[in-house]
Amino acid sequence: MTRPIAAGVDGTPESLAALEWAAVEAGRRGAELRVAHVWEPRRVSGAEERSGSSDEQERWVRQGVEDSVRGLAERHPGLTVSTHIGRGEAPEGLLEASDGAGMLVLGSRGRGLLLGFLLGSVGRQVIAEAGLPVVLVRADVKGDEGERGGEVGTGAAGEIVVGQHGEPEDSAETLRFAFETAAACGAPVRAVRAWALPPVFAYSPGSLRLLDEAGGPVPFERKALSTALAPWRERFPDVPVTEHVEMGSAGEVLLSASAGARLTVVGRRAHRAAVGSRLGSVADAVIHHAPCPVAVVPPGPGA
């Protein structure tokens, strides 16, 4: 059974683009679209009458969500849409609303016209703590047919670009998401592995032997990428794959490969900080600078 796709809305152009992107993806996969909004009652200078009673605010919120989803059924015939309106802290509410979903789709920035969440801080917390892939979509994403968010990129290649690092198990969930998405939309995959020469003192006899056996660092990295891709090529034989190995920082190489991409998929290596959570540097760079929607995939169990 295909899991639902959840989309957070807050009334901004970014969240509406994310909603449209999620609707297209749900239609491709035959999945339910779950539209989520989380709000907190507001008081202005202690004068409740200025911001409306709590019941009145909730009516505004529900009306705003209804306005956001209006027309989805006409644009996406056969799409099943449900709504989830939560009350409380936005990060916790969005994670609760996406429980059991296959992905959560959010706009990449902005404060809503509804009593909503500020994605700059909320979105980062959701990404760092989510147990499912989180896709970020900007308002300027345009579809191949001109509809906002109707497709996942306008480049001629239209590839799903995915970063691979380390051993095969380190990127297994990231590659799974990339191949599943590519299969759903009929797109090719470009798998990217970046590498850099370590300092001389970092070499060990074992690593030198492995590099020597492989014929040098470039053949070694190519073999590592091919090994990681092998099970996904077998599982998705109809998905065309380009293997891309390049020397440089992972963030820069991924961003360069993402020009014209439909979607960039990156693994998350979230770290617990003294205050809150912070993302790994590669995911952080791609989120801020990629020209296309970005999917951030958490590590699998035990990773």
Would you mind describing this structure in some detail?
The chain folds into 2 domains: 5-137, HUPs (Rossmann fold, 3-Layer(aba) Sandwich), CATH 3.40.50.620; 160-297, Rossmann fold. Helices cover 40% and strands 19% of the residues. The chain is of the alpha/beta class and 303 residues long. The chain has a 10-stranded mixed beta sheet, sandwiched between helices. The radius of gyration is 21 Å and the shape is elongated. The two termini are 26 Å apart. The protein has 11 helices and 12 strands. Belongs to the universal stress protein A family. InterPro entries: Rossmann-like_a/b/a_fold (IPR014729), Universal_stress_UspA (IPR006015), UspA (IPR006016). This is Universal stress protein.
Radius of gyration, whole Å = 21 Å
Distance between the termini: 26 Å
Q: How does the helix and strand content classify structurally?
A: alpha/beta
CATH class of the largest domain: Alpha Beta
Q: What is the number of beta strands?
A: 12
Within the CATH hierarchy, at the fold level, what is the topology of the largest domain? Rossmann fold
Shape: elongated
Strand content: 15-25%
Q: Can you tell me the number of structural domains?
A: 2
Provide a count of the helices: 11
Largest sheet: 10 strands, mixed
Mean residue pLDDT: 80
Strand line-up in the sheet with most strands:
3-2-1-4-5-12-9-6-7-8
Determine the fraction of residues in helical runs and give it as a percent range. Answer: 25-40%
**Secondary-structure element order, as H and E?**
EHEHHHEHEHEEHEHHEHEEEHE
Which CATH architecture of the largest domain is right?
3-Layer(aba) Sandwich
Identify low-pLDDT runs.
Answer: 110-119, 143-157
InterPro entries: Rossmann-like_a/b/a_fold, Universal_stress_UspA, UspA
Family: Belongs to the universal stress protein A family.
Protein name: Universal stress protein
